[in-house]
TrEMBL record:
Pathway: Purine metabolism; purine nucleoside salvage. Keywords: Glycosyltransferase, Transferase. Residues 29-295 form the Nucleoside phosphorylase domain. It comes from Ascoidea rubescens DSM 1968. Phosphate binds at residues 35, 68, 90-92, 122, 226. One of its GO terms (cellular component) is cytoplasm. This is Purine nucleoside phosphorylase. It catalyses: a purine D-ribonucleoside + phosphate = a purine nucleobase + alpha-D-ribose 1-phosphate. GO terms for biological process: guanosine catabolic process; inosine catabolic process; NAD+ biosynthetic process via the salvage pathway; nicotinate nucleotide salvage.
Amino acid sequence: MTLNYLQGLEGARDYILQRLPKELSSPRVLIICGSGLGGIQKIIEKELSVVVSYSSIPGFKESTVSGHEGKLIFGYIGANKVSVMCMVGRLHFYEGYELSEATFPIRVASLLGVSVMIATNAAGGINPLYKPGDLMIISDHINFPGLSGSHPLRGPNVDEFGPRFLPLSNTYDLELRKLFFQSAQSRKITRRIAEGVYAFVSGPTYETRAEVRFLKTAGADAVGMSTVPEVIIAHHCGMRVFALSLITNTCVGDEPASIFDEAPVSLEQGKATHSEVLEYANKASLDVQSIIQATVNRL
């Protein structure tokens, strides 16, 4: 299994390299665009960029979710011309893919020479101080599927990338977190930026009220259906990792209406929708693009 997996990764890498000019063949930074944040691709210099669709790459699965285009863009960002590989759209566990399939592009990025990963996502705010439109720098995570057996490193270890027993206490690079915050200040971004714990759940359903209360008790500040598998694999590959959540909705953790309430609150109140997620992501996209551009330019 491991040999076939490695051969698949190398096949994908070689296919991509055949389509890249030499100057773009060793990207330094991998950027993953979350739901509604595909606009990050706009900060890549178009004149020298190369686009490769997921559907054409051996071993890559196709993104099936609205807001995820399913293509790689290789190019430069910033005045310092930092070479990047941008995933416009990600692959999710809830789409029916195995975690090894969903994280396949991260391994390929490692083979291409990527040393830094920047992952973005849209997330629900659990921390009562968070409001839609806020940004949360991820400082730690809770991997609920991983704790129950669905872990991206489950199975034979790929020793060529990293150790069998991987420590995760140092996953989210402190210097990258500082750099992002400093970049936001330099761009005079007024949008609230917090730092907190991201809870990964498998989805695709949004959380029940009881689940929101449970996640809050467990120490989560935000919750989403992505990012953590990619982060773990990137860390296993030795990449420096930065991850960002855009808070797109407030999770409802109040007790549900009861048959004994004289004037029950509608159960529709506060219900999350995917259109709401995309709406807030689109509104914040320009700020996110600006900060990431400044951040990458200083790497």
